[in-house]
Amino acid sequence: MSRDLEAEERLSHTTTAFLEPGDSIDMHSAIPYYYQLYQLIKQKIQSGAWQPGRKLPSEHELCDHLSVSRTVVRQALSELANEELISTHKGKGSFVSGVKHNRHLMDSLSGFYDDAVASGQDVYAQVLDFRLVDASDEVAQFLNIPKGDRVIFLKRLRHIDGEPVMLGTTHIPERFCPGLLDEDLTHQSLYRVLANKFNLQIAEGVRTIESVNASESLAELLQVEVGAALSMITGIMYLRDGTPLEYGISWHRGDRSRFQVRLVNAFK
């Protein structure tokens, strides 16, 4: 069965969310009806009462239960869709979208693990590869080392709340942390291990983000359709003396990731 057919099959068997008897619109409030409905549904999604993948009540059911017009319902659903809290599938209805996980792209040197934990999320890393390799031309160039130097290669599939959201590869010169291969990086931050056990403090870094489409291998690991939108981030992290410590590439699911960039005024 193709991925498109599988997705349609899943949607056809999705459990429909329901409104509680006490859910209502205050007809005497100055707050617009559509905004009250928008807030009602948003609260149910953010509280976890309506889980990702759950089908929303139909427009008719919302109109009937809340005694509002279809125009009110459609405006509320449009606002929710604009915020990517729900998605609409023609002929199927509206569904609760998966949560997007925020990453602070430019203003933080924390890693994926620390960012997710700070947001109260359950983080798990499936280590797919962890070994010594010879530096390729590309890796040697980014790490400013001779081609063929020994580097530690780490490949992890990162999960948040049980769902795969990011695949990452990392290269670090072995001479900086010869005992790193003995570490279990399933439930701990690589950057914290480097700092606490090897006294390697990252001082600055450069991250570049671009949009790519999922190849067959990436789609299989990240559980998305081939060609799905991904964000690819290439990063180089430096020690205080300017020495490159890490070169890495990560692929993030476009439907589960959101990146924040902090801007500062260079002329103040």
What report would you give on this structure?
By secondary structure, the chain is α+β, with helices and mostly antiparallel strands. It folds into two domains: 3-96, Arc Repressor Mutant, subunit A; 101-260, 3-Layer(aba) Sandwich (Chorismate lyase). It is 28% helix and 31% strand. It contains eight helices and ten strands. The chain has helices at residues 3-12, 33-47, 59-66, 70-82, 112-118, 137-143, 190-198, 216-222; strands at residues 86-89, 93-96, 101-104, 123-134, 150-160, 163-173, 202-213, 229-239, 244-253, 257-260. The strands form three sheets. Strands 4-5-6-9-8-7 form a six-stranded antiparallel β-sheet. Strands 1-2 form a two-stranded antiparallel sheet. Strands 3-10 form a two-stranded parallel ribbon. Strand 1 and strand 2 (93-96) form a beta hairpin. Helix 2 (33-47) packs across helix 4 (70-82) and helix 3 crosses helix 4. The longest helix has 15 residues, at 33-47. The chain is elongated. The termini are far apart. Mean pLDDT is 83; it is low at 1-13 and 104-108.
